[in-house]
């Protein structure tokens, strides 16, 4: 193991000891994870991103149930603290700035253990809170647009929920690819955010008709049960719809409307990604960061691990901010 500044023996981390609401999240002192594998990386976490799915897992009602107790968090950003002996210094070294996508331990902690395949270098000039907006949102956006819907330059693309963590990345990646991007958002501040991200025009979720008769070659649904019925009415022939999120049955969907357009609705599940998918995705994300066509949008920020429960509540309720990513700044 190569290291220039050994991590301390203990750290602060959020632990969930029983499933339930956000009050089950408590900060405790625990042992810092050890680099026991030759391909392990220990990251000093400075910012952690919060996903809606993190809250579903915490309740114990999601299909994936971690062994209790566990530390939540699948995304984050920080500084490499230690690396396994098989990792070449030319590849990744102590002190490098990185973002995390799929760690071995949770990111709501002062240190996080990862396999090398889950750690991606960023330029030193990228703020850590912006880098913590990557991971699940950016990987989901890429999978929806490129792996599943296979967008092409020049196509018209609709992003429902264009102001959210995944939505803002969708907008920027689709525009970078040469698409004409439209969006929806629920609030005025959200619509302003979506326009700044690169949308040509933005409407309320239930007002696609205000987009002057545009039909869409591709549509990305963040809450399909609420919006897909109307989306179908505005699809071009042969359109593709990617369903990223859904919380119930979709009322008002007439399958004949899909038949007449020969349109396709497909699910998008990040968990189905292969190792090759992950590598392709994060290479593309790193490239977009480097050419500044991707600028992650930070929404509500919470200072300190003690605020992690509030951050979990915010990612669902959106009381403090209706756009961007919910981020927790991890005190060191």
Automatic annotation (TrEMBL):
Highest taxon above the source species: Eukaryota
Domain Enoyl reductase (ER): start-end pairs: 20-328
Listed InterPro entries: ADH-like_C (IPR013149), ADH-like_N (IPR013154), ER (IPR020843), GroES-like_sf (IPR011032), NAD(P)-bd_dom_sf (IPR036291), Zinc-ADH_QOR/CCCR (IPR051603)
Pfam families, per the entry: ADH_N, ADH_zinc_N
Gene3D superfamilies: Medium-chain alcohol dehydrogenases, catalytic domain, NAD(P)-binding Rossmann-like Domain
Keyword list, A-Z: NADP
Signal sequence region: none
Name of the featured protein: Enoyl reductase (ER) domain-containing protein
Highest classification ranks of the organism: Eukaryota, Viridiplantae, Chlorophyta, Pseudoscourfieldiophyceae, Pseudoscourfieldiales
């Amino acid at each position: 193991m190569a290291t220039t500044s050994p991590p301390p023996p203990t750290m602060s981390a959020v632990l969930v000891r029983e499933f339930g609401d956000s009050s089950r999240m408590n900060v405790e002192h625990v042992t810092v994870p050890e680099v026991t594998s030759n391909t392990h990386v220990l990251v000093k976490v400075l910012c952690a991103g919060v996903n809606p799915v993190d809250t579903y897992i915490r309740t114990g009602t999601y299909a994936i149930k971690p062994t209790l107790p566990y530390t939540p968090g699948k995304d984050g950003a920080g500084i490499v603290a230690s690396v396994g002996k098989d990792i070449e210094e030319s590849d990744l070294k102590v002190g490098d700035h990185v973002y995390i996508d799929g760690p071995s331990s949770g990111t709501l902690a002062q240190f996080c253990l990862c396999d090398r395949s889950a750690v991606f270098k960023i330029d030193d000039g990228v703020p850590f809170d912006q880098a913590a907006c990557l991971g699940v949102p950016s990987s989901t956006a890429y999978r929806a647009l490129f792996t599943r819907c296979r967008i092409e330059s020049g196509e018209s693309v609709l992003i429902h929920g264009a102001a959210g963590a995944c939505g803002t990345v969708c907008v920027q990646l689709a525009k970078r690819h040469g698409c004409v991007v439209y969006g929806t958002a629920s609030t005025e501040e959200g619509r302003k955010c979506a326009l700044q991200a690169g949308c040509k025009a933005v409407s309320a979720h239930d007002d696609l008709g205000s987009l002057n008769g545009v039909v869409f070659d591709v549509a990305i649904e963040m809450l399909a049960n609420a919006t897909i019925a109307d989306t179908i009415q505005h699809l071009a022939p042969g359109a593709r719809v990617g369903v990223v999120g859904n919380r119930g049955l979709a009322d008002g969907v007439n399958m004949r409307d899909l038949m007449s357009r020969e349109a396709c609705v497909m699910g998008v599940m990040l968990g189905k990604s292969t190792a090759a998918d992950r590598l392709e995705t994060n290479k593309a994300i790193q490239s977009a960061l480097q050419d500044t066509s991707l600028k992650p949008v930070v929404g509500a920020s919470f200072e300190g691990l003690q605020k992690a429960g509030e951050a979990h509540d915010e990612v669902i309720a959106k009381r403090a901010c209706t756009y961007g990513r919910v981020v927790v700044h991890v005190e060191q």
